[in-house]
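User: Here's a structure from my thesis project, written as structure tokens. My advisor, Dr. K., wants to see whether a designed sequence matches the one we expressed. Can you design one independently, without my sequence as a hint?
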């Protein structure tokens, strides 16, 4: 079993996806149908599907019974996967912030942490994973009347998500509308710090930044910002994440994935090349 993805601090979503992909591998190797596997653990075909996709927590007994049913005899391996099954039901680090994060966003944080590649198109703000503390604080508090008492906890979560991006080396490719980068947030000093931060991030091997200039006119993402989360290590389909004012959508139908992937590809063509991003950002600093 490849447990390299279970780094220190990995949350339950990562463990669910890893365990689900391993169970699918053993089931396929044995030639067992999902229906037969579900019947073996007093469940259903849909339960096995949800388990293999990492969408639910696991019972240790179910995992151990399935492994034996799939012909696994290594007691050490069965015990290891049984322990991981128990860990899938433990709360993620983000849950310690309680009501500061709505349930729908807690789901996203888990999916984001599990992703090995993240592609973002942002039309409104600098993406949260790239924001400075000053910029993020002003975005989070912006428009809150009266002030949001949970804003500081939300800020802590955002900064911790950024630390995961830095520590994990996840491939992050962001395409930003020029308006998103130029929108004044927090005053001149805050904006200069943010733009300088983006310039620094351009030198990270795991981060690619492009800017869609105003001169590009109408383009493929007229519907707004979106994120594509990819899981090639788990052999799972991509997830398209769309955030709304009071909730979010996570799309995984092939037609949706194809449409948003095509939109991202078109955006990458009309955006200025990554090699030009630092120069564009320096010009924006001069314009402050």
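Assistant: Designed independently from the structure alone:
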């Amino acid at each position: 079993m490849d447990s390299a993805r279970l780094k220190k601090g990995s949350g339950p979503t990562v463990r669910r996806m890893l365990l689900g992909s391993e169970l699918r591998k053993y089931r396929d190797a044995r030639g067992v149908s999902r229906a037969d596997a579900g019947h073996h653990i007093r469940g259903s075909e849909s339960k096995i599907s949800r388990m293999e996709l990492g969408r639910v927590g696991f019972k240790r007994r179910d995992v151990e019974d399935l492994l034996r049913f799939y012909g696994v005899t290594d007691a050490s391996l069965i015990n290891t996967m049984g322990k991981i099954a128990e860990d899938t039901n433990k709360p993620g680090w983000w849950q310690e912030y309680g009501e500061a994060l709505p349930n729908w966003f807690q789901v996203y944080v888990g999916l984001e942490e599990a992703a090995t590649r993240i592609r973002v198109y942002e039309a409104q703000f600098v993406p949260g994973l790239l924001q400075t503390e000053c910029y993020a604080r002003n975005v989070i508090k912006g428009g809150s009347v009266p002030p949001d008492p949970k804003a500081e906890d939300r800020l802590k979560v955002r900064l911790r998500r950024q630390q995961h991006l830095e520590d994990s080396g996840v491939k992050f490719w962001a395409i930003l509308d020029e308006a998103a980068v130029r929108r004044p947030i927090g005053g001149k000093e805050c904006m200069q710090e943010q733009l300088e931060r983006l310039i620094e991030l351009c030198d990270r091997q795991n981060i690619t930044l492009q800017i869609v200039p105003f001169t590009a006119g109408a383009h493929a993402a007229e519907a707004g910002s979106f994120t594509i989360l990819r899981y090639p290590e788990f052999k799972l389909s991509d997830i398209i994440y769309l955030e709304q004012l009071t909730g979010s959508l996570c799309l995984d139908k092939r037609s949706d994935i194809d449409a948003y992937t095509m939109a991202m590809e078109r955006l990458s063509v009309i955006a200025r090349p990554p090699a030009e991003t630092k120069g564009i950002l320096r010009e924006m600093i001069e314009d402050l």
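When you compare it with your expressed construct, this may help: The two ends are 53 Å apart (CA to CA).
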